[in-house]
Amino acid sequence: MEQTKKLMMTFKTSADKNISLSIDNPRDDINETEIKTAMDLVVSKNIFAPNGEDIVEAVKAKVVITDTTPYDLEL
Questions:
Q1: What is the pLDDT, as a whole number, of residue 10?
Q2: Distance between CA atoms of 13 and 19, rounded to whole angstroms?
Q3: Contact 51, 6 (CB under 8 A)
Q4: Can you give the pLDDT at residue 41?
Q5: Mean pLDDT of 33-57
Q6: What's the rounded Cα separation, in Å, for the pair 31 and 17?
Q7: Could you give the maximum distance between any two Cα atoms of the chain, in Å?
Q8: What is the pLDDT of residue 48?
Q9: Phi, psi of 51 (to 5 degrees)
Q10: Strands of 2-13's sheet in order across
Q11: DSSP secondary structure letter of residue 16
């Protein structure tokens, strides 16, 4: 079984749409304060412009862990 982990961050754009940015393999000891600080930095520096829209607000964040079990179908 293979396990993957991502930090999913959701932001609101100037067009009032939600967009998500993800970070693969975040540290195991990452905390809410660090995530909030990083998200606030993305908003304040305005370095991303999805579809030409500004990111104006941090909305939510979560760590998603996925277990994948591959199967060999050649029997």
A1: 97
A2: 7
A3: no
A4: 96
A5: 93
A6: 26
A7: 55
A8: 87
A9: 55, 30
A10: 18-24, 2-13, 55-68
A11: S
Name the residue with higher pLDDT: 32 or 46. Answer: 32
Contact at 8 Å (CB) between 61 and 9?
yes
What is the structure's pLDDT at 51? 86
- Residue 41 tokens, joined: 């930095």
DSSP string, 34-50: HHHHHHHHHHHHT---G
Q: Among 21-25, 28-32, 51-55, where is mean pLDDT lowest?
A: 51-55
Residue 53 tokens read as 């829209």
DSSP 37: H
- At residue 55, the 3 state secondary structure works out as strand
∠ at Cα 55 (52, 61), nearest 5°?
135
